[in-house]
Please model this.
Amino acid sequence: MNILMIGSESSHAAHFASALKSLSNNESFHVSDLWTGDGNNYACDVQTAFPKVNFVEDVEATIARSDGVIITLRRASEHFDYATLAIEHKKPVFVDKPFTDTPERAQILHELGKKNNVVVSGGSTLCCLSNFEANLSAIRNATTVKISFYADPSSPYEGIRFYGSHLTDLYSMYSSGLPERITLSSNCEQYMIDFFHNSQNVRFTMRNSPSPVLITFDDETIELSQTECYMAGMEHFTNILKNKKASDSERLLRSVKLMSMIEKSFEQKYGLNRN
Model:
């Protein structure tokens, strides 16, 4: 199957290409085309994994002849137009985190996917890790959940959402609906987002320096691998291409809505905007 990868500025392009190469039997899944308009930082890495990759400029024409699309652009605001093209051409699409920049755009992609019967997936590949999936029931039934990771409110890639979306994606994997309100606090080392929803006390801890991804549910704690997630995410996408997975767009919509609440709280309390 021919996969178009849109974007090579992010290291995720290299990680995803390497994972696809490992998953592919006789090149059954391969990156056949690559658009490097965002920057060619990792184009050579993609080419190392798939030496026959074509560097393309006409994205829509390439989407039309592809079997699936992976979007790795770093800025969430740049995802919508390309995801829309993929869905309109009825191609399964994996949109890297953050899924998109506004709840309105996430809603459109969700509805467009349903209308065209296209599987829309993506977000944080941490959600695809087996040790997380194995504990989903226990996490869902816990009275207290804490999710912590690094996130930079001043990231040049549109602020807190660039890394913070990992936390909202993980939460949206097991929880339905949204909290009515959130409380934001901070100290010199981290930001804390607290809320109560579905009979559960939840805290997101966004640390100021690189840190492990930890999920604590009642008295249990698991760590999610920041290296194995790429393989897990691409295995998820190849299963979609083999018609073995359903769309992720509804839970991604919830994640974008929750991230929008967090961004507004940051703007109001700290004057940090999303751009």
Q: What stands out?
A: Residues 19 and 129 are 14 Å apart (CA to CA). The mean pLDDT is 95.
